Amino acid sequence: MKGTRTLTFALAVVAMGAVLGAQQAGPKPGESLSQSYRGSQARNVEYQEIAPFKVMDNLYYVGPGTVSVWLIPTSQGLILIDAAQEPYVDKILENIKTLGFDPKNIKYILLTHGHLDHFGGATKIQKASGGARIALSEADWDFMATQEANQIKNGRAPKPGDEAPKKDMVIKEGDTIKLGDTSLKVYIMPGHTPGSVTYTFTAKDKGKNYKALVFGGPGPRNGVQGGEEFLASIERLEKEFADTQVAVNVHSYLNSYPYPHDMGILELRDIKTKNPNGPNPFINNALWREWLKDAHAGAVKYIADEKAKAAKPTN
Known about the structure:
By secondary structure, this protein is an alpha/beta fold. The protein has helices spanning about 1-25, 35-40, 45-50, 90-100, 115-120, 120-130, 140-155, 225-240, 265-275, 285-310; strands at about 55, 60, 70-75, 75-80, 105-110, 135, 170, 175-180, 180-190, 195-205, 210-215, 245. The chain has one domain: Ribonuclease Z/Hydroxyacylglutathione hydrolase-like (Metallo-beta-lactamase, Chain A, 4-Layer Sandwich).
């Protein structure tokens, strides 16, 4: 009897802790809502599993809070941009169903680059779809394979859900991916990874067309070389794509260069929810131009910092 009471008390304590934890979950002081998903709440799985929401008439957010997964419905099936990673893949599939779509109708999984948080769910989603094509640039297919080979060499096989998908569809600069009434144009813009992909397409809202762009690698990596590649990609965006109206960002909060005025994806979602009949806040060319300016300045600083590091003598 005493043992039963002890177990009951222990379970009650655990349950109360879970309740208090849920109540306390949220941005820490000085942290924006979107930022909290990549910051203080990054490992809070329950917090990360957000409800899907509509951004444009043909664009939905179905991912966890930390990393974007975008759904584009077309007249002949569904296109998914990025696939997140475990433990969120089942929630992504559930989110797609919640919106009234069938994962079996996914025809393409378009990856933006070869980092785990973007490709980790691709194989599982491909199986759930019954055979969707997984597309990525040649350079990042190789980049993913190299990462996985290095893991195995160092004595750790990929965890379930961490596996790089088997090489499938190779896309290159200038390609067009067409499904039904929707076309996406492909551009290779390295710097975040060797072959980060940018996609452009027409987003629709209330009967009007808008220029949408997915910039697949929104922060520099890999020292001076990566910084210079990233700066060239930003300069290309400034020259060729400054008229972008809908920035389809790959994270709710961009760590390297945050979206201006704390306007992450979830802040824009909340504005849209509060005023559903007002202007769509995701349609904002001025914010995009401001971000390009910030990213350009950030890239110049990153390159200078990396050159300074490289110039320091090693002991």
